[in-house]
Design brief:
With about 290 residues, this protein is mostly beta strands. Among the domains are: about 90 residues, Immunoglobulin-like; about 90 residues, Immunoglobulins (Immunoglobulin-like, Sandwich), CATH 2.60.40. It is built from 1 helix and 13 strands. It has a 4-stranded antiparallel beta sheet, with no helix packed on it.
Length: about 290
C-alpha cells in the first residue's frame, strides 16, 4: 500500500516535470519563430504597396508625404436654370441654381458655361465663367447680357474642372446677412425699379470684395428679373446700405426678393484683415 502511494507520487512528479520541460521548449520555439519573422519581415515603407504603419491609404497619408487621393461623392448639381430679357434689345440674363452635395468638400474653383438654345435645339449664344462653392452650399450663378438676334427657348448650364478642397476641421462660413430688403418701382428719376437693402458683415474678418446677386420672383416663384452688384472693403461688424437698379421695364409682378451675398473664402485677396490666415478656411486640395 505504501509502495503504491510512493509510486503514484513519483509518477505524478515526473509527469509535471515533463510538462514543464515541454512548455519551456515550446516557449523557446515560439520565441525563435517570432525573432526569425521579425528579422526576415520586409521593412514597412511608403512604397511597399501595402497599407501599414499609420498610413491613411496604400502608401499615402500618415508618415508618408504623399497625399491620399480622395474621391468626391458628387460633382456640382444643377437644380434649375433659366433666362429672362435683360431690358436691352436682343440681350438676355441667365441664371442657374446649383448645389454642392458634399458636406466635407468645397470647390475652390470650377469652370462653367451657359448655353442659350432656340426651339430647334441650336446654340444661339454662350457665356463662360468661373465660380466656387463651400461644402453643402446651394447658390445662384448669374450672368448678364447674352446677346443674340434669335429667340431663345431654353438655357443649359454645365460646370466642369472643379478643384476640390477637403475641410477636415470645423470651418466658419462668412456671416453675411441681408436685411430690410425692399422692392420699389421708380416713379420719378432714372430707372424702372430698384431693390434696397442692408448688408451686415457679422464675420470677424474684413472683406475687400462682396458680391450680391439679386433675384426677383413672382407669386409662382418664377424668376422675372436679375441683377448683380458689388461692395468693396466691408469691415468686420459693418452695416452698409446697397441699391440695385433696373433701368428697363420687365414683365411680371414682383412678390419675392432674394439677395445672395458671398465672399470668396478661397481667395486670400478677398480678405483685408492683415492678421488673417486663409488656411483658417482651407483644407486639402484635390484635382
Amino acid at each position: 500500500m505504501v509502495m503504491q502511494i510512493l509510486n503514484n507520487f513519483l509518477e505524478n512528479k515526473y509527469q509535471k516535470k515533463q510538462t514543464i520541460i515541454i512548455a519551456i521548449f515550446l516557449a523557446i520555439f515560439l520565441l525563435f519563430i517570432f525573432v526569425m519573422y521579425s528579422w526576415l519581415r520586409p521593412t514597412q515603407t511608403c512604397s511597399d504597396g501595402k497599407q501599414n504603419q499609420n498610413e491613411e491609404g496604400v502608401d499615402c497619408g500618415g508618415v508618408c508625404g504623399k497625399k491620399c487621393e480622395v474621391k468626391v461623392i458628387t460633382e456640382v448639381t444643377v437644380l434649375e436654370s433659366g433666362f429672362v430679357p435683360s431690358g436691352v434689345v436682343n440681350s438676355y440674363d441667365v441664371y442657374a441654381r446649383i448645389a454642392n452635395p458634399n458636406n466635407v468638400f468645397g470647390s475652390s474653383g470650377f469652370q462653367y458655361e451657359f448655353t442659350l438654345k432656340d426651339s430647334a435645339g441650336q446654340i444661339i449664344a454662350t457665356k463662360k465663367g468661373s465660380n466656387y462653392m463651400l461644402p453643402g452650399e446651394t447658390k445662384y450663378v448669374v450672368e448678364n447680357n447674352l446677346v443674340t438676334d434669335q429667340t431663345p427657348d431654353s438655357v443649359e448650364f454645365v460646370a466642369t474642372n472643379s478643384t476640390w478642397v477637403e475641410f477636415k476641421d470645423q470651418y466658419e462660413k462668412p456671416r453675411l446677412k441681408v436685411v430690410n430688403k425692399q422692392y420699389n418701382p421708380i416713379s420719378s428719376g432714372v430707372g424702372f425699379s430698384e431693390v434696397l437693402g442692408l448688408l451686415k458683415n457679422e464675420s470677424p474678418f474684413d472683406f475687400s470684395l462682396i458680391s450680391l446677386k439679386i433675384i426677383l420672383k413672382d407669386s409662382a416663384d418664377k424668376v422675372v428679373a436679375l441683377n448683380l452688384t458689388e461692395m468693396r472693403t466691408v469691415k468686420s461688424g459693418e452695416n452698409r446700405d446697397f441699391r440695385a437698379v433696373w433701368f428697363s421695364r420687365f414683365l411680371g409682378e414682383v412678390l419675392n426678393v432674394e439677395v445672395q451675398a458671398e465672399a470668396n473664402v478661397f481667395d486670400s485677396e478677398s480678405f483685408t484683415t492683415k492678421n488673417f490666415v486663409p488656411a483658417t478656411y482651407r483644407g486639402t486640395d484635390y484635382r
